[in-house]
Amino acid sequence: MIFDKSEFLSRLEGDELLGSEIIEMFLQEYPKLLDGIHQAVEQRNASLLERAAHSLMGSVGDVAAPQALEHARALEQMARKGDWEGANAALVRLEVALDQLAREMRNSEIRVA
Q1: pLDDT tens per residue across span 14-35
Q2: How many domains does the chain have?
Q3: CA-CA distance, 54 to 45, in Å (whole number)?
């Protein structure tokens, strides 16, 4: 599942206006978090990758995006192991998941301004 809208709204007690605001903030902020992950992978900086992946995990967890959460968690674990080959592949999977998530959020019934 890309975006668990019912879980997301249940966390907000059904407040679609708040949900719309949170989605809008997420859509504005996740590219910055993803850029940090890209930089960490390019620099092979394990501590930076671990922190950047952890930050993204929090964001995708907040918006009930289990697939992106799984890929961000994998990146965090790869940073701990210094698995750069795996990190490159996981980053591609994360990008695909985030693209799908953003598309699904924009097309959801929760209107984004």
Answers
A1: 999 999 999 999 999 999 999 9
A2: 1
A3: 14
CATH number at residue 101: 1.20.120.160
Query: Which long-range CB contacts under 8 A does 96-104 form with residues at least 24 apart?
Result: 97/2, 97/65, 97/67, 97/68, 97/71, 98/30, 98/34, 98/60, 98/68, 100/2, 100/67, 101/2, 101/3, 101/60, 101/63, 101/65, 101/67, 101/68, 102/27, 102/30, 104/2, 104/3
Task: For residue 83, tell me if it sits in a domain.
Answer: yes
The model scores a pTM over 0.85: yes
- Residue whose structure tokens are 């950047």: 52
- Rounded to whole angstroms, the Cα distance separating 7 from 12 reads 9
